[in-house]
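We keep the chain:
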Amino acid sequence: MHKNSVAATFDLLGDRLTLTILRLAFVEHARRFHHWSDRTNAPPAVLTARLAALVDAGVLYRDRGEYRLTELGLGTWQILVCVWSWQREWTAEWALLPEFVHTECGHRGPPVVMCKSCGRTVTPHDTDVELDRDALWHITSGRRRSARAAAPAGDDARFDEIMEAIGDRWSAAVTGLALAGVRRFSEFRAALHMSPTTLTERLTRLVEAGILHRPETDAREYRLTPRGRALFGVFAFLLAWADHAHPEPEPGLRIHHRECGAVLIPALRCRGCEAELTRTDVRFEAATARVSQG
């Protein structure tokens, strides 16, 4: 994996307005500027910049005044499903979220993450993470836009809470290291070469967001809460997408599935019928459609 690929992925997709653009493209088949403008109330200049960034990254392409998903853009569907699953279970926004449906069996609700190599369900406890220190430096170096800017307005889900974990490079790196088993303040600092003040601020924010907690027995240790561990699928598919978007022979960050020994190629499995899910097997059903049908 290119040493900048993970950083580029978090810079592009670790943004609430960008996630909203993609979600509306999938759920409501938004294609024209006014579709996103009407639904998000984002300032035109900001929305234009996000759409341009997605075009430059090969996620969208322009065709006769419309923005359409490329194959690379269609490949973000698993990330969006995992973000949806986390929001559905761990935030108060669930009523605003679209429903996820497996068309073939009719099951509604979150899928599970599986290892494509062996077919088993996989959790953070089943994995080891290979970390390249040079890759970590590139993830956390450089400048990027603020993840708190340009939040969608109105009655739409805003991705506010998940942005605490993936909305900037430092927070994403800390959360990723926690998922890799790092617990102690000194270990986070050694891996990331960040100042004690910056690290303390990010760790404090993640504790306040309920993603990490500090055991009473050791004040220098930070452990994932169930809410934090539930982010595993989001990170697994972000890394997989980064690898697809920026393929290089040299790995920088890799998740290994301990049970089968393979580098994890994540996939989604239906909880209802146990089938591996593909993009064409599923649909997002808009919340407004659910309400009108109920």
Notes: Residues 5-293 form one domain. DSSP finds 14 helices and eleven strands in the chain. The chain has one domain: 5-293. The longest strand covers residues 127-131.
